Predict the structure.
Amino acid sequence: MFLLLRLFNSIFFLIINIAIALYTFHRFFRAMRFHYQLIDEVEEFSYLVDQSRASLEYIGNNITEAIKEMQSDIGKEIYVTHNLTILITKINATSKRFNDLEEEIIEFARLNENLDNAVVETPLNINEEVRRILRRKYLVNEQDQQQLTQECPRSPRKPLKVQSGLGLMESVQSQPNPIQKLPSYHQTRPYNHQKPRSPNLVPDVMLFDEQRTIGTIDKPIGFRPPWMCQV
């Protein structure tokens, strides 16, 4: 009986020890499996982190290249814009020149058409026309000379000194001669008088009531082509 009790006690304790050992091994293996699972997850996470870093580096490189390309494109656009501005200025100047040239061409065409439609008129007697022009010029010159004569300042009259037997006598004429007030063509001018603009050449033109002594009345003045003469 005692032996059975000892055997039973030994078997009972053995079973308890085996159960404790099995439970311990089970917990150990479970902890190890969890540990390996954590290691796998950490490795996977580190791999993902490496991939993320590589992706970020790749994206950063691409962004840097894109920024450089954008800078080069902006420089090209600025250059093109500058050239376009210069070309627009040149085009505007060229367009203005073309407009002026077009207006000149239209004016020349209009003048050509007017010349084609114009009728050249010549006087019947060129000699009479030339004489009329010369008379008019002579009258204008005479009027200018009269006007300059009237506008010139008069110098004060000096006292007349007369030598007589009693001595030197001075007589001053207080009133001017009324004949000297009239404008005369041959009146002497003062020394410092301003010269007229027109020359002092008087054309050889006869008056209306005078007769020419030289027989050059019928001589034509100037030259007129036959195509200008009226039929």
